[in-house]
Amino acid sequence: MFNYLDYVREKNLPHIWCSGCGDGIILKALIRSLKKLGISKDEAVMVSGIGCASRTAGYIDINTLHTTHGRAIAFATGVKLAKPNLHVIVVTGDGDATAIGGNHYIHAARRNIDLTVLLYNNFIYGMTGGQVSPTTPRGKMASTAPFGNLEPSFNIAGLAQAAGASFVALGDVYHVQQLDKLIASALQKKGFSVVEILTPCPTAYGRRNKQATPVDMMNWLKDNVVLKDKLDKMAEDEKAGKIASGVLWDVEKPEFTSEYGKLIARLKTEKQTKE
Question: Which of 77, 145, 163, 242 could join 149 in a cystine, given CB atoms 3.0 to 4.6 angstroms apart?
Answer without folding.
Answer: 145
